[in-house]
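ingest -> validate -> predict -> emit
validate: passed (alphabet ok, no gaps, 318 aa)
predict: started
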Amino acid sequence: MHISIVLWLVLVISSVIHSEDRTSHSTNENNFGFGLELILAKLESLELEIMSLKEQNRNLSELVSDALKISDKSCVQVATNEIVSTGEIVAEQNNVIRVDQNEPEIDESHVYSSCNEVPDGKTGKYAIRPVKDSKLFYAYCEMQINGGGWTVIQKRFNGSENFYRNWTDYKTGFGSLDGEFWFGLDRIHLMTSSQTHEIMFHLIDFKRTVKTAKYNPFSIGNEREGYVIKSLGAYTGSAGDGFSYHRGMKFTTYDVDNDKFTTNCAKKYYGAWWYHACYKSNLNAWYINARTDQAMCWNPFNMGNDGLMSSMIMIRPV
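emit:
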C-alpha cells in the first residue's frame, strides 16, 4: 500500500516536475524568441539610423563640396580681379612711364608732338609723339609756369618714389605721372634731338622758397653716347648756376660709372646724375629735410647741400 502510494507520489511528483520543466522550457523559448525579436528590431532601427546618417553625411559632403567650389570660384575671381586690377595699375604706369610700352589707342587728333602744342592750357597728362614714326607715349605737361608748354622730365615733392635706381630704370623711366617720376633718358634724348629745346629747373626748399634755373639750348645724346649733355646754353634764373658744371658729362648710376671722380659719384652721393667730379646739383639723390651731401640739392640755391622739398625739371621746344 505504502509502496503503491509512494510510487503514486513519485509518479505525480515526476509528472509535475516534468510538466514544470516543459512549462519552464516553453517559457524560456518564448522569452528567447521575444528577446531576439527585440534585438532584430533594434538592429533594424540602428541600420535605418545609420542609413539616415549616411544620407545626411552625403548631403553634407555635397553641400561642403559645393560651398568649396563656390568659395574657390570666389577666391579665383577675387584673385583674378586683383590681378586684373594690379595689371591695370601696372599697365597704366607702364603706359605712362616706360618706353617699351605698347602704343595706347587714342584719337590722333589728341596727339601732340610736344606739350607746347597742347591747345587748352591745362596742366595734366597728354599723348605725345615727338617724331612722326616714333612711339606714342604720355607726358605730364606743365602749362602754368613760365608761359607753359613744358614737358616734365622729373618730378619730386614728397619722397614717395625711390630714385636710387640702376641704369635701366633711368633709361626707361619709372614712377607715375600722377606722383613722383623720372621720364626716361631715352625719351629725353628723343625729344631734345628731334628739335631744339630749353631746360628749366623749378626748385622749392623746405622754407617754401621758390627759385628757378633755365638753360637754352639743351640736348642729350643716346644710350651709346652715355646720354651725354651735348648742348647746354647760358644760365638765367634765381636759383644760381648749378648745372653748367655738368656740361659735357655722361649720365652715371650706381651700376654704370661715367663720372670723372676716383669712385662712383652715384654710389657716394646716393643718386644718379650727369656727375662730373662730383656735383653742384644732385636732384635725383636722397629726399630729406637736412643738410647732407647725399641730399637732393642744388648747391647755389642756399650755398650748401640743404635738401630741397620739391624739384621739377622741364623741357620745352624753342
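The chain has a mean pLDDT of 81.
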